[in-house]
Amino acid sequence: MSTQRKPQFDDEEISESAIRDYLAGHPDFFERHASLLDALSLPHASGEAVSLVERQVSVLRQKELKLERQLKELIEVARSNDVIAAKIHEMTLQLLATSDLKGTVSAVEEAVRSGFSADQAVLVLFGDPSAFEDVDAGRFFHAIGRDDPAMKPFGTFLAGNGPRCGQARDTQLDFLFHRDAEEVGSVALVPLGNKSQIGFLAIGSADTDRFHPGMSIDFLARVGDIVAAALRRF
Predict the structure, then answer these.
(1) What is the pLDDT of residues 5-42, one digit of tens each?
(2) How far is the C-alpha of 215 from the C-alpha of 224, rounded, in Å?
C-alpha cells in the first residue's frame, strides 16, 4: 500500500489577495499553464467578455498610444527650444554689432518685439534719467532711479535673482505699459544683473497663459544675461 500523503484542502476559499500574491511571485505561471489564458475572460468596455490575451493586447495598445503622445510632446518641446535658441543667437549677434547705448537699446527692442513676438515690452534702466537723454526709444525705454517711489511695487522682484512670470499687479502694469495696461494678460519680468542691478526687461502678452509661474524660465534668464552683458559695455 502506498504511503504517499494526499494533499489536504481547506474548506475555506482561497482569498483574492492570496491569488494575487501568488501570481505576482510566479510571473511565469501562465507560461506553464497556457491553456488557462483562453479560458479566462474579462469584461470589455463594450460589455462583452474578452480573453485575458485580448485584454493584455488592449492594455499594450493603450500604453503604446500614451508613449506616442509623450514622444510627440517631447519632439514639439525640442523644436520649440530650437526656435528659441536660434532667436537668442540672432539677438546676441545683433547686440555684438552695436557700438553705443542707443543702438543696443534699439537692438533689444527689435529682438523682443519681432524675434520673441511680444505684444508689449519695456526696458527699465536704473540711473539718472538725464544721463540717457540721447536714447530715444519711445515707450520701450524708461530710465529711473532705483530708489524712486515708483519702484516700490517691484520690491520683491528686485530683491530676487531670477525672472518672474504671471499676472502683474495694477500698479506694476500702469507703470510699465500706461494706457496699454488693460491689454496685458500676463507678464515676464527679467532682471538685468544680480538683483536687477542694471535694471530689468518687462515682456507683456495679451494671453493670460503666455507667462505663468510654472513655466520654464531658463531662456528668459539667458536673455537677461545677454542683454545685461551688452549694456555693461556702455
Answers:
(1) 544 545 456 888 888 888 888 878 877 776 776 666 65
(2) 16
* Angle in degrees, 0-180, between the axes of helices 101-110 and 218-231, rounded to the nearest 10: 160
Residues 124, 196: Cα–Cα separation, whole Å = 10
Of 133, 114, 117, nearest to 125 (Cα)? 133
Judge contact between 121 and 142, C-beta under 8 A.
Answer: no
Question: Tell me, what amino acid is at 113?
Answer: R
pLDDT in tens, 142-197: 999 999 999 999 999 999 989 999 999 999 999 999 989 999 999 999 999 999 99
CATH 3.30.450.40 fits 100-231, yes or no: yes
CA proximity to 62, closest of 45, 49, 47, 78: 45
C-alpha cell at 144: 529711473
CA angle 231, 129, 228 (to 5 degrees): 15
Q: How do the domains of the chain map onto residue ranges?
A: 16-97, 100-231
Interval 200-228: pLDDT, tens: 999 999 999 999 998 889 999 999 999 99
Closest CA to 92 of 126, 70, 115: 115
Residue 167: the pLDDT is 92
The Cα 113–Cα 184 span in angstroms is: 14
Three-state DSSP class for residue 126: strand
pLDDT, one tens digit per residue, over 47-56 is 555 566 676 7
